[in-house]
Specification:
Order of helices and strands of chain A: HEHEEHEEEEHEH
Number of helices of chain A: 5
Helix content of chain A: 25-40%
Order of helices and strands of chain B: EEHHEHHEEHEEEEEEEEHHEE
Shape of chain B: globular
Structural class of chain A: alpha+beta
CATH class of the domain at 180-290 in chain B: Alpha Beta
Oligomer: heterodimer
Number of strands of chain B: 15
Helix content of chain B: 25-40%
Number of domains of chain A: 1
Distance between the termini of chain B: 38 Å
Shape of chain A: globular
Number of helices of chain B: 7
Number of strands of chain A: 8
Largest sheet of chain A: 7 strands, antiparallel
Largest sheet of chain B: 8 strands, antiparallel
Radius of gyration of chain A: 19 Å
CATH architecture of the domain at 180-290 in chain B: Roll
Strand content of chain A: 25-35%
CATH topology of the domain at 180-290 in chain B: T-fold
CATH superfamily of the domain at 180-290 in chain B: ApbE-like domains
Strand order of the largest sheet of chain B: 1-2-6-7-10-13-14-15
C-alpha cells in the first residue's frame, strides 16, 4: 500500500517534466508601482548588499530563508521606503513591491509579475492555442488573450513570508 | 478605451482586478485601488488570522456575551447560517477547530479545546449587528468571505462608468459589463498544467477542490474541506464550480455541493438560480441542472 501511494505521488511529476510553457502576467513595472504606492514622492535609490551577519540575523528574526543578498530599495524625501523583491510561488518567481512608511509600517503590497509554468501536459488544444505565436523568451502578454482562471484557491503564503522577511530586512539593514 | 490589470495579495490568495473603460489609465488605477481597499476592509473584519477582526473577537467571547459586529460581518455570517439550515448542516462555518488541528489555521493562545463541540445551530443572530454563541465556538469564514469581498468590489466598480470589470480572488470571480467573459477552469488531475475552457453561465463563478491544499497531518492525508458531520477531510480530487448571480453564493455553494446530499443541493442551487459543474480527474464534465 505504502509503495503504491509513493508511486502515485511521483508519477505526475515525471509526466510534467519536459518543455514547460511559461505563463507570465506583468501587472506593473517598478516605476508604475512606485507611483501607485508612494504617489508624488521623489525616490532615490538606496539599495544595499546584506552582509552574512545581517543575512543570518534576518533569517533568524523572520524564520524565512534569504536567497538574495542584493536588496533593491528606494527612499523618498520624507523617509518612506520602496522595496522590489521576489519570492518563489508554487514553482516560479513572483515579483512584488512593498512600500513602508518611515517608521516601518506597511503602506502597500503590489504584485509586479506573476508566473506559472505549464508542463508538457498542456494538451488541451483550445488552451494551448492561446499561446500560439508567443515566444517563450518574451514575457507572454496576456491582456485580452488569456482567460480568467477559476480553480481551488491558490495560497499567497509565500508573499506573506516575503513581506515578513523584508520587514526584518528593513529593521536590520535599511533603517537608521 | 483603456484597460488595466492589478494584483494584490489579499484574503490569503492573489486578488486580480481588471477594469476597462474610456477613463484615463490613472483614473482606472484609482478605481482599482478603491476596489482593493474594499476587499482589504472585508479581510480586516473577517480574517481568522488577525486577532482584532470581528471573527476573532466573536471566537474569543461571543459565548460569554453577545457582541456588536460590522454590518458586513453580520450579513456574511447570516448568509452562512441560512445556507447551513438549507443544507442541514453540510455547509458549516464552525469547522475551524479541525482546520486549526490540521495546521490550516493558526492556533491562537486563548482557544479552548472544548470549543470543538459547537456547531452552526449555536450561532445566535440577534438584531442587525449583534451576534452571540450559545456555546463556545470557533467560526471561520474562509468558505464564504472571499465571495462576499469580490461582490463588494464589483458592486462598487459597477457604479464607476466602466465598460467592464473582473475581480478574481484566487479563482472566485465575478464579472461586470460587456463581455465576452470567457473562462478557464483548472483540470483537477493536473491543476498546474492544464485548464478546461468554460463559459460564464452566470456573472459569478467559484471552484472548490482539494488539489492545492492537501497535506499530511501525522499519518493521515488531510485537506481544508471538512465534512461537518463526520469531521473527515474531503480527499477526492473532483472539482466543483458553481455559477451564480453573486460571488458569495458561488463561493459558499461549492462547499454545499461537495458535502451535502444531492437532493438538498439541487434544491439550494435552484433557489439561487445557480448551476454546478463537476469535473472529474479524467476531465469529464457534468452540469447540474443539465
Amino acid at each position: 500500500m505504502r509503495r503504491r501511494s509513493l508511486i502515485k505521488g511521483f508519477l505526475p511529476a515525471a509526466l510534467v517534466s519536459g518543455p514547460a510553457v511559461l505563463y507570465a502576467e506583468t501587472y506593473l513595472t517598478v516605476e508604475q508601482a512606485q507611483r501607485l504606492l508612494l504617489p508624488g514622492a521623489s525616490l532615490s535609490p538606496a539599495s544595499v548588499t546584506l552582509s552574512s551577519a545581517q543575512k543570518s540575523a534576518i533569517e533568524k528574526a523572520s524564520g524565512v530563508r534569504v536567497r538574495e543578498t542584493q536588496i533593491k530599495a528606494w527612499r523618498s524625501g520624507n523617509g518612506d521606503w520602496f522595496i522590489a523583491d521576489n519570492v518563489v510561488g508554487k514553482h516560479e518567481f513572483i515579483d512584488f513591491a512593498l512600500a513602508l512608511s518611515r517608521d516601518g509600517a506597511v503602506k502597500g503590497v503590489e504584485i509586479l509579475t506573476y508566473r506559472e509554468s505549464y508542463g508538457s501536459e498542456v494538451r488541451n488544444p483550445k488552451w494551448r492555442s492561446q499561446f500560439a505565436g508567443k515566444r517563450l523568451d518574451s514575457p507572454v502578454k496576456i491582456d485580452k488573450d488569456i482567460k480568467n482562471i477559476s480553480g481551488a484557491t491558490l495560497s499567497s503564503v509565500h508573499i506573506t513570508e516575503g513581506v515578513r522577511r523584508l520587514l526584518n530586512t528593513w529593521a536590520i539593514a535599511l533603517k537608521s | 478605451m483603456n484597460r488595466i490589470k492589478r494584483c494584490q495579495p489579499l484574503l490569503g490568495t492573489f486578488v486580480e482586478i481588471t477594469v476597462e473603460g474610456p477613463q484615463s489609465e490613472a483614473r482606472l488605477q484609482g478605481e482599482a485601488s478603491k476596489a482593493f481597499d474594499l476587499i482589504r476592509t472585508v479581510n480586516r473584519l473577517m480574517s481568522f488570522h488577525e486577532a482584532d477582526s470581528d471573527v476573532s473577537r466573536l471566537n474569543r467571547c461571543a459565548h460569554i456575551a453577545p457582541l456588536r459586529v460590522h454590518p458586513w460581518t453580520w450579513q456574511v455570517i447570516n448568509s452562512a447560517v441560512k445556507l447551513s439550515a438549507d443544507t442541514e448542516g453540510a455547509f458549516d462555518i464552525t469547522v475551524a477547530p479541525k482546520l486549526v488541528k490540521w495546521g490550516y489555521l493558526p492556533r491562537h493562545q486563548s482557544f479552548s479545546s472544548l470549543s470543538e463541540a459547537g456547531q452552526w445551530e449555536d450561532i445566535d443572530m440577534q438584531d442587525a449587528s449583534t451576534i452571540g454563541f450559545r456555546r463556545p465556538l470557533q467560526i471561520d469564514l474562509g468558505g464564504i468571505a472571499k465571495g462576499f469581498a469580490v461582490d463588494k468590489a464589483i458592486d462598487w466598480l459597477a457604479t464607476r462608468g466602466l465598460s467592464s470589470a473582473v475581480v478574481n480572488a484566487g479563482g472566485d470571480l465575478r464579472v461586470h459589463g460587456t463581455g465576452p467573459h470567457e473562462l478557464s477552469i483548472r483540470h483537477p488531475a493536473a491543476p498546474q498544467a492544464e485548464t478546461l475552457p468554460a463559459v460564464m453561465l452566470r456573472p459569478a463563478v467559484a471552484t472548490s477542490a482539494a488539489y492545492f491544499a492537501q497535506k499530511r497531518c501525522g499519518l493521515a492525508k488531510v485537506s481544508p474541506i471538512v465534512h461537518p458531520r463526520t469531521g473527515k477531510p474531503l480527499r477526492s480530487n473532483v472539482s466543483v464550480s458553481v455559477f451564480a448571480p453573486t460571488c458569495i453564493q458561488a463561493d459558499a455553494l461549492t462547499k454545499a455541493v461537495l458535502l451535502a446530499p444531492q437532493a438538498l443541493w439541487n434544491r439550494v442551487l435552484q433557489e439561487a438560480n445557480s448551476l454546478a459543474l463537476f469535473i472529474t480527474r479524467q476531465g469529464e464534465q457534468v452540469l447540474y441542472p443539465a
